[in-house]
Specification:
Blueprint: E1 12-15, H1 34-48, H2 61-86, H3 95-104, E2 116-122, E3 131-133, E4 137-143, E5 146-154, E6 167-169, E7 175-183, E8 185-192, E9 200-202, E10 214-217, E11 220-224, E12 236-241, E13 247-250, E14 265-272, E15 286-291, E16 300-306, H4 319-332, H5 339-347, E17 357-365, E18 373-382, E19 386-388, H6 392-403, E20 411-416, E21 418-430, H7 438-452, E22 464-465, H8 466-473, E23 479-487, E24 497-498, E25 504-517
Parallel strand pairs: 11-12, 18-20, 21-25
Antiparallel strand pairs: 1-17, 2-7, 2-16, 3-6, 4-5, 5-7, 8-14, 9-13, 10-11, 10-14, 12-13, 15-16, 17-18, 18-19, 21-23, 22-24
């Protein structure tokens, strides 16, 4: 399905391709350990000082001094290699260091996003006056990841939450379906203004949901910005995150961003949560609360129900996400020109309430009158490793964002990518001796299969081959043979090979692993 009437059956003139960059590997810590250092020093002494020293008994004092030197050299060498690894994005292993490298070049990892669902509020009897329900209405739910809170707000025409209004069941009606539920919990925190330049305040709770911080100074709301307005101080604040997505509210210096005056009252509200735990199923919650209506002697029961599933919850970028996103971000240089620029920008695009892009593909049309038209096929991230059709809200915000980055002569047509759903069956043959270890081998096999199908390992147009999956499983030496079969909705595109067109991507729907013992 195309967005805004874009045609779907267009033969591309050219497709963007991934840039192949040399992959750095960790600096190899070999021949620099304690025993290597000791043996090399002993060999050196034997070669250079054989006439003056030949006492290499382990209990000798000289050997003790050699071992002390080897220990110091071992420690220093390891630390030097470790530091060298931590200054490259390809080999960094600590999240704190990955965040520092990202900040060094202006890249901001994606903070947590709250799952969103649509709700209804219904009453049993129609009232003659409006039923006003103060927001947020907190709903406690139990998920596989533990208890979570979903807060209910009125929804606007785009189904975005309105944070400063109450819910209403208007007079003469018994239901309101324009309610949006956001996973997470609201906290309020206050602090005094110090009058100092670059004042910052650490928020007490975390992880803080993306774009959920609201700041009022002496009752006046200030605007959140990515960068302070230089040479024109305004009522602006910034939010910075640490690797655990705890947040810090930052103020300016009166040249770029105003300083809250000494003794002013800084009120901050923010939401804590995020992640796929809020992706509840449809009608998973049905909760009843009682509310007072002016003019009625009794409290009115209101039933809240989620009539859509929860979606778009995201836990925030981890170190692997940063290592994957940072190189394309640098190549893009904050503008969209080439096809890989479109993909780099789109793959990292996220919204507050309409999800984020999971995979994109940019192609150029194959006829002269449309030489400036870029077809952008997208699919939204669904959960942690699945794809779904993008909502119109996500497409609309993506187009608006591209307008500020692309060449003015480019025309962008956003279309829906196509997911080829595949049922995977794997038959593993092993010696009957290993029957009692089936749980262990099943876990090892499942882990390798899931890694093979990990979303980061797939792109549009990639062919699924049984031989590639078998190759990934072949390092389990106890396995005698492996048979793999793929089944799709198209019989001619099933079996040992599943092909995909340039706007299609393969995703597994079910994975069945069978063990046969001989």
């Amino acid at each position: 399905m195309a967005y805004e009437g874009c045609p779907f059956d267009v033969t591309p003139y050219d497709k963007s391709n991934l840039i192949k960059t040399p992959k750095l590997v960790n600096i190899n810590y070999t021949n620099q350990d304690f025993w290597s250092m000791k043996s090399r020093l002993i060999e050196y002494i034997k070669e250079q000082f054989s006439e003056s020293f030949n006492d290499f008994v382990e209990s000798d004092l000289a050997i003790m001094l050699i071992e002390n030197w080897a220990f110091i050299a071992d420690t220093l060498s390891f630390k030097m290699d470790q530091i060298a690894n931590e200054i490259f994005i390809d080999t960094v292993s600590e999240t704190d260091n990955a965040f520092r490298l990202a900040m060094l070049v202006g890249f901001k990892p994606q903070p947590p996003i709250a799952a969103r669902s649509m709700w209804s509020a219904s009453i049993n009897n129609i009232l003659e006056t409006d039923l006003v329900i103060p927001t947020p209405v907190a709903v406690d739910v139990t998920t596989e990841q533990g208890p979570r809170t979903i807060e209910l707000y009125p929804a606007d025409s785009n189904n975005d939450p309105i944070f400063n209004e109450n819910l209403l069941v208007t007079a003469g009606t018994f239901i309101n379906t324009s309610i949006v539920g956001l996973e997470g919990k609201t906290y309020v925190q206050s602090a005094p203004g110090t009058g100092n330049i670059n004042q910052f305040i650490e928020l007490n709770e975390g992880p803080v949901i993306w774009n959920s911080v609201r700041v009022h100074v002496d009752g006046v709301e200030w605007e959140q910005v990515d960068y302070f307005t230089d040479s024109q101080p305004r009522r602006e604040f910034r939010v910075e995150y640490d690797p655990d997505y705890n947040a810090y509210v930052m103020f300016g210096n009166n040249r770029a961003g105003l300083i809250p005056s000494l003794g002013s009252v800084i009120d901050m509200s923010y939401r804590v949560g995020g992640g796929p735990a809020g992706n509840i199923v449809t009608a998973a919650v049905q909760m009843q609360r009682n509310f007072t209506v002016p003019g009625y002697n009794t409290r009115v029961p209101v039933t809240f129900t989620n009539y859509t599933r929860g979606e778009y919850g995201y836990v925030g970028d981890n170190i692997e996400d940063i290592k994957r996103k940072l190189p394309p971000y640098l190549r893009m240089q904050n503008r969209v020109v080439a096809g890989d620029d479109y993909e780099a920008f789109t793959d990292q695009f996220a919204t507050e309430f309409h999800g984020q892009v999971g995979k994109s593909k940019a192609v150029l049309r194959n006829h002269g009158c449309a030489a400036n038209v870029v077809d952008l096929y997208i699919l939204a991230l669904d959960g942690t490793d699945s794809l779904a059709e993008a909502s119109n809200g996500l497409k609309r915000e993506l187009i608006d964002a591209l307008e500020t980055k692309k060449m003015i002569t480019d025309a962008v047509c956003v279309k829906d990518g196509v997911v080829i759903e595949v049922d995977v069956t794997i038959d593993v043959t092993m010696d009957k001796f290993y029957r009692k270890f089936e749980d262990e081998f099943r876990e090892r096999t499942t882990r390798r299969v899931l890694n093979y199908f990990a979303l980061n390992n797939w792109d549009y147009g990639k062919t699924l081959k049984a031989v590639d999956l078998i190759k990934d499983l072949s390092d389990i030496k106890e396995i005698r043979s492996i048979d793999v079969d793929f089944q799709t909705d198209t019989a001619s595109n099933s079996g040992e090979v599943v092909t995909a067109k340039y706007y299609e991507i393969v995703r597994p729907i079910s994975i069945e692993i069978n063990f046969v013992y001989e």
